[in-house]
Amino acid sequence: MQDMLVNLYALDKCSGALWLEKKFSKQSESKYLLDDVVIRKLNVYETHLLVEWVGLHFSAKWQSEVRVAMSRQPATVWVATYQKQIMGFACYDTTAKGFFGPTGVAEDYRGLGLGEVLLYKSLESLKELGYVYAFIGGVGPREFYEKSCGAKVIGDSEQGLYQDILPENKVD
User: Fold this and answer.
1) The domain 4-153 belongs to what CATH superfamily?
2) pLDDT tens by residue, the chain, 172 residues
3) Is the dihedral of CA 72, 92, 54, 163 positive or negative?
4) Residue 150, class by beta-carbon neighbours within 10 Å (0-12 exposed, 13-18 middle, 19+ buried)?
5) Where are the domains of the chain?
6) Residue 35 burial by CB count (10 A; 0-12/13-18/19+): exposed, middle or buried?
7) Calpha distance 17→19 (Å, rounded)
8) What whole-number distance in Å separates Cα of residue 14 and Cα of residue 75?
9) SS (H, E, C) the chain
10) pLDDT given at position 171
């Protein structure tokens, strides 16, 4: 899997920005509302809830990254919730400086634009931290990132950050 690069000065072209602007009402700098769907920053006292959710829907490795994101001050995680239940999440500046991810939306909520909004808010947060470009490491859905935020594949990046990863412990 390759890494990708996003120009943070072109965020106004992101599909998540348009979706957020047209559909959601802004409650504050870190909270957006559409009916019972809320896009917001996660509070540190909710860490265990997101870590558990990520374990159920994704992987133990992502749980580790979420813990790091939640240990930051302020936390570097955006979430989407519906009636106070997690629908999806996105971390930034977690695995490495200037990196986006991990991110994921529960299967039942995919295709609604939540991934695009979470991506956009995370990239916007990276820009606010002073980054000019953001990295998306070990990209799976390349076309999603190309379409959503104009991400470009970084040549010769197959090895990238995610190499020499320890194997999961096997219990017999």
Assistant:
1) Gcn5-related N-acetyltransferase (GNAT) (3.40.630.30)
2) 899 999 999 998 888 888 888 889 899 888 998 889 999 999 999 999 999 999 999 999 999 999 999 999 999 999 999 999 999 999 999 989 999 999 999 999 999 999 999 999 999 999 999 999 999 998 888 999 999 999 999 998 877 777 777 787 776 6
3) negative
4) middle
5) 4-153
6) exposed
7) 6
8) 23
9) CCCEEEEHHHHHHCHHHHHHHHHCEEEECCEEEECCEEEEECCHHHHHHHHHHHHHHCCHHHHHHHHHHHHCCCCCEEEEEECCEEEEEEEECCCCCCEEEEEEECHHHCCCCHHHHHHHHHHHHHHHCCCCEEEECCCCCHHHHHHHHCCEECCCCCCCCCCCCCCCCCCC
10) 67
